Amino acid sequence: MTSPILSVQNLHTSFRTDDGWTEVLRDISFDISARETLAVVGESGSGKSVTALSVMGLHPRQSVRHSGRIEFLGRNLLELPEDRMRAIRGNEIAMIFQEPMTSLNPVLPIGAQLVEAIRLHRDISRDDARREAVQLLEKVRIPAAASRLSDYPHNYSGGMRQRVMIAMALACQPRLLIADEPTTALDVTIQAQIIDLIKTLQDEEGMGVMFITHDMGVVAEVADRTLVMLRGDVVECDRTTRVFRQPGSNYTRSLLAAVPRLGSMAGRPRPAYFPTIDPETGQAGPDAQTAPPPAAPRPVLEVQNLSTRFDVRKGMLGRLVGRVHAVENVSFSLNAGETLSIVGESGCGKSTTGRSILGLAAPTRGRILLDGAELTGTSRAEMKRQRQNLQMIFQDPFASLNPRIRIGESIAEPMIVNGIAGRAEARDRVAALLAEVGLSPDMMNRFPHEFSGGQRQRICIARALSVQPKVIVADEAVSALDVSVKAQVVNLMLRLQERLGLAYLFISHDMAVVERVSHRVAVMFLGEIVEIGPRAAIFANPQHPYTRRLLAAVPIPDPERRGSKRRLPELEIRSPLRPPGHIPPPRSYRECAPGHLVMEPSEDWALLGAA
Amino acid sequence: MTPMQKTGPDAALSAAPASKRLRPGRFLRRWPALSLGLVLLALACVMAVFAPLLATHDPQALDATQRLKPPSAEAWFGTDMMGRDVYSRVIYGARVSLVVGFGVAVLATAAGMAIGLVAGFSRLLDSIIMRIMDGLMAIPSILLAIAFMAMLGSSVVNVIVAVTISEIPRVARLVRSTVLSLREQTYVEAAITSGASTLRIIWRHILPNAMPPVLVQATYICASAMVIEAILSFIGAGTPPDIPSWGNIMTEGRALWQVKPHIVAFPAVVLSLTVLAVNLVGDGLRDMLDPRRKS
């Protein structure tokens, strides 16, 4: 093997805190060679990003201390002065970040930003830099690159912006590319495209890539070697195939066990608990299916022909220029004790569907029936009483709790505003609820910032449960959580469903989690349900081309099956923005198996590359 | 039947936070800027409250024989053109300055918050209210205050009214924009889905989270009101000349400041320190009231 591009040896990094120095990285060692991809995996707080920032020399020098060696092409980066480091940064080592929405300056055209990035590091004329920029955009497969230079970042979709960020990182032909969760904020199909792109470019340019991620599926797709980190320590570092086949530590085994695998539910009609492995002992928990939901005379929630449209107005007089048909003619029903998942990519209307049901968005038309009684159009007091039965868990556990209110009060709020319990009684119930979701009752006097993301999501679940609802809408409720925490929260939700007969409307883009938790699945595309049916049928026998596309894009957490998937045709999701007078075409559904409905073919099929 | 098992409520109650007493030493080390601001502000308040005890002379007493004396053991800050003792006038001047500063800060913040909340929650009223606020903002606040003083006549109360009106739009705009962004927060949506009324959402979720910027704005207004009062008095449109305020002491020293700088210098220094103290207290309070920075 050739000598490595980057060689980190015994790196220790400490942060200055109020009580002296705290070591956040201990004895980190790894190498990256040309054309090699090293995945750095671990959960939040494991030190993966700190490692990357240490390599880039981006920590403030006064408050961060290093020891060990970071050798890049024979130079020890830790000893370089700041001005020499600046010449390496962006030039020989480039970095791309997670958030493509905020990494670009919104008030400058894409072309100007690219030209600036090129001229910062290379002494070439503006015209040459412009030509170079076009080439770079072509390299990252942006169609009609020359004509898109004068566009602003908001004209680009999330996936395109991440491509631009990659183009910028490549501007100076770096030897090492550090990618810090580059696909975490993107849709699955876009993620698959970006990963393909990074791999192709790596071959073309001969770069080494350090790929930071928490997603084991992505690791299996991209990495030659894998470094597993836990709370600042290296747990193991080996070839990816070995890490997946024979993990050398219990922690890695528990991490791998918590990874949802598409297809692992074949032959099992009901949701199943994640088989958790204790990271200390390596003991595996059960991988059991949940009990079947109780038979019910009628669905607890029925949605009929729900449409939600938003007007787009322009100018002084607010002239109507278009309508976003966010949700169009959506119908489904949900039984007690059952989970219906709504899947689709961002902008498909799945969240708006949930919000319309909860009254956070005003439906344009349609009926919502709760226990057979209509939700819309009754008196205010009546509506409030009914709405108790519908609660919601939000995606971002950091934003969904008021930072200035103790969590006990947050959990008690629904009970108090609905007049279910007085202050003292609410307090007792909060204690019981905290125990129910696996937290200690004496935590009720703490503030939200004292909890981790997973704990906060448990608090949100406790809040939703406090009024004993029948239906919980979980909008991407586990998407923002670490793998093992995600498994725990999903298991908690499954257990509560079994115990309390809760019905979940589980809104998610994560097909692998959806496979585990759902009884039934509805696939949404541009505001419409294109396929709905029992989970087993949808996953085993997807009918609509969009469903197939979604399933094909899910990364498979098995490095030995890498590349076995067919490449996805490039496609950016169109927007459901229509002219004001637009009348949606009538749709009909075909029942291809009991309960499994597919929308009849339309012009979208050709677009989606259906055979 | 509730599915929740009882877990000792006593355990939960006893876990109430043992309110940590902050010792002065710890407080000083944790919040040095706030401590300094509080001490300075306390001194200014002592000056205002105990002015009759602290003053060495009658602040109004004229003495033609003692005109324009430099600082001495007899007159600590020297005397002005009419032989009045500058030290005693500065002490009494604290009363006007502090009353105007705090009065304007409290009134403008309260009115501005009410207006901002209404604008943030009602689309219809928003466009009307904010156009009025834009109109007020278009006129420089000192000009506006002078116009009000001309209409109302000169008295301390009228100074407070005039400065308050010209400061309201600042608070209203800030509160409106804060409310608009807080309304989009997930925890506000969570409260809506749990059935909370609009009033409760404003009181429990919007107001506490809108406080930090408003608090900072309030201290800024307090400081700026003291300065505007001084400017109004300085140009003769503010506090009546017989009531000493830091502004009109400086007015009287204005013509002579190159030869007799002490008349302007002492009130100026005291005014600056007070304004600084108010700003320090504002910043410190904002940090202290944030639970995220306490642990």
TrEMBL record, chain A:
Q: Where in the cell is it found?
A: Cell inner membrane
| MF terms (GO), sorted A to Z | ATP binding; ATP hydrolysis activity
Q: Which UniProt keywords apply?
A: ATP-binding, Cell inner membrane, Cell membrane, Hydrolase, Membrane, Nucleotide-binding, Repeat, Translocase, Transport
Out of the domains of life, which is the source? Bacteria
Residue spans of biased composition, Pro residues class: 577-587
Q: Which GO terms describe its cellular component?
A: plasma membrane
**What's its membrane topology?**
Peripheral membrane protein
* Identification of the protein by name: Glutathione import ATP-binding protein GsiA
Q: Which species expresses this protein natively?
A: Paracoccus solventivorans
UniProtKB/TrEMBL annotation, chain B:
Q: Which domain of life is it from?
A: Bacteria
Where would I find the ABC transmembrane type-1 domain in this sequence?
94-282
Write out the GO biological process terms: transmembrane transport
Q: Which GO terms describe its cellular component?
A: plasma membrane
Q: Which UniProt keywords apply?
A: Cell membrane, Membrane, Transmembrane, Transmembrane helix, Transport
Tell me the compartments it is located in: Cell membrane
Primary localization class, coarse = membrane
Residue ranges crossing the lipid bilayer per the database entry: 31-55, 96-121, 142-165, 215-237, 263-285
According to its record, how does it sit in the membrane?
Multi-pass membrane protein
**Mind telling me which InterPro entries this protein's record contains?**
BP-dependent_transpt_permease, MetI-like, MetI-like_sf, OppC_N
UniProt similarity note: Belongs to the binding-protein-dependent transport system permease family.
Please give the name of this protein.
Peptide/nickel transport system permease protein
Q: Which organism is it from?
A: Paracoccus solventivorans
What taxonomic classification does the UniProt entry list for its organism? Bacteria, Pseudomonadati, Pseudomonadota, Alphaproteobacteria, Rhodobacterales
